[in-house]
Amino acid sequence: MSDGDVNDILIVGSGPAGLTAAVYAARANLSPLVIEGYASGGQLMTTTDVENYPGFPDGIQGPELMQHFRAQAERFGTRFITADVERLDLTERPFRVWSEGVERRAHALIISTGASARWLGLESETRLRGYGVSSCATCDGFFFKERPMVVVGGGDTAMEEALFLARIGSRVTVVHRRDQFRASKVMADRVLANPKIDVRWNAVVEEVLGDGRVEAVRLRDTVSGTTEDLPTAAVFVAIGHTPNTAILQGQVDLDREGYVITDGTRTSVEGVFACGDVQDTVYRQAITAAGTGCMAAIDAERWLESRHHPTPAGAASA
After folding, report:
1. pLDDT 10s digits, 155-209
2. Which of the residues 10, 36, 249, 304 has an alpha carbon 20 to 30 A from that of 84?
3. How far is residue 278's CA from residue 134's CA, in Å, rounded to a whole number?
4. What residues act catalytically?
5. Are 45 and 62 in contact (CB under 8 A)?
6. Whole-model pTM?
């Protein structure tokens, strides 16, 4: 089944990157179609307070911020479909995208499917997510200034999180399930040399404790089997992210972790662009995602123009 129309720009994903791309594409009179997914809004939908997004001096709730993004895109004529993309075909033009059995076509495609934080899989972790449990120290560390915090993980990301939090908190405890870090030596050495950071080797978080907010973690020693409750105000899970690129396998070039490889926002397929956490392994912030969304829309608009695609008179990208 096909909807019959060919869209100028189709955007897959509706986090800060995808919705910013929609704002810019819509203001360029390209009438973008966003397939937003059932889990629309990206990772900010599970974030309580956002205090580092410019323009909100008193902070804003994550879901409310995403409602503002969506309303702004809609105001300029963005069309939305609430469905998950099941598959796509980038081997021919127009590009073909299927959701709920319906085929939709587009001259240009913007991928903004994001990445998902890996979690420990604990019920208590899920219950307290946003209330002391987080996967982003840069986003949430400030809320726990001068208080003890826990970082779970042993890679470079965990080391970066611990070093960042050590500048904010009273004490940071890194919990790692092995007896040595898998992080690079330079990062591991910095953590081990920091007087505000403790390390619990051969330990796993068995439960996050607290009523309405994090109060402690229950640690289990993987060698002796003994448990201990460690008081803490926050738990930062830093065991990696998984890019949401399953539908892109074999379609565009991905790195060994599964992230889309881009030159700016251009992918290996001409006319296909990627923005946000699906191609960002470094920053993973709402504002950087929004910035690359802007870039992707402008790149897509200019690419369409270079192919003498009939864009409406008066189209502008700013």
Report:
1. 998 999 999 999 999 999 999 999 999 999 999 999 999 999 999 999 999 999 9
2. 304
3. 19
4. 136, 139-140
5. yes
6. 0.81
